[in-house]
């Protein structure tokens, strides 16, 4: 549904699944060897239970979702194995940017809005470093606040990550929208008093709506830029 006044004037972007098609899900699945059948780690489990959370929290939640016995005793080792596998995949170049996301970032940047990037992943900055917008500007250079990979007291769905980002943007939470692909991230944005723009890249519109996203799109190209310019989140008319 459209959000009400006050008008938006700042944007905060998650990284994995929003800006970049990174190999996090594959790394979690590959690292399951020795704990469970990797085939048991479905995209649905990844989106509902793991995506957007700090690594340790995601490992525990994923093992619990798959019914692995004594998950607490295995979560730390599973998280470490996932990180090792992720680094190997990144080194092989298994990271790409979503074209619709880069175009959307450029459009919001061209509005003169303050932009922030926020991810619990400690790999986010390394993955974004080589990415450039169509204008040639480095993706990392458009963000005046970067809160990726920091050690925080609370992970999503707690709003701490996004509240810190808003503070570093010198923006009130109510004036910010957060672009997220995971229910935990949407919940964190709403808990922080921000608008949530959900991007359903994995056929998970229902999950994002259930988390109370203000607007859900399957591509960021579906966001009405004229409405956004006026400070409102709305779907582009057909």
Provide the descriptors you would attach to this structure in a database record.
238 residues; alpha/beta; Rossmann fold; DNA polymerase, domain 1; 2 domains; 6-stranded parallel beta sheet; two-stranded antiparallel sheet; disordered N terminus
Which SSEs are present, and which pair or pack?
Layout: E1 10-13, E2 20-21, H1 24-30, H2 43-50, H3 55-65, H4 75-91, E3 96-97, H5 99-110, E4 114-119, H6 124-128, E5 145-148, H7 160-168, E6 176-180, H8 183-191, E7 195-199, H9 205-210, E8 215-217, H10 225-229
Q: How would you summarize this macromolecular structure in one to three sentences?
A:
The protein is α/β, with parallel strands linked by helices and 238 residues long. 37% of the residues lie in helices and 13% in strands.
Could you walk me through the main structural features you see in this protein, from its secondary elements to its overall organization?
The chain has helices at residues 24-30, 43-50, 55-65, 75-91, 99-110, 124-128, 160-168, 183-191, 205-210, 225-229; strands at residues 10-13, 20-21, 96-97, 114-119, 145-148, 176-180, 195-199, 215-217. The chain is an alpha/beta fold and 238 residues long. The chain has two domains: 10-21 and 95-229, Rossmann fold (3-Layer(aba) Sandwich); 24-91, DNA polymerase, domain 1. Strand 4, helix 6 and strand 5 form a beta-alpha-beta unit. The longest helix has 17 residues, at 75-91. The protein starts with 9 loop residues before the first strand and ends in a 9-residue tail after the last helix. Mean pLDDT is 93; it is low at 1-5.
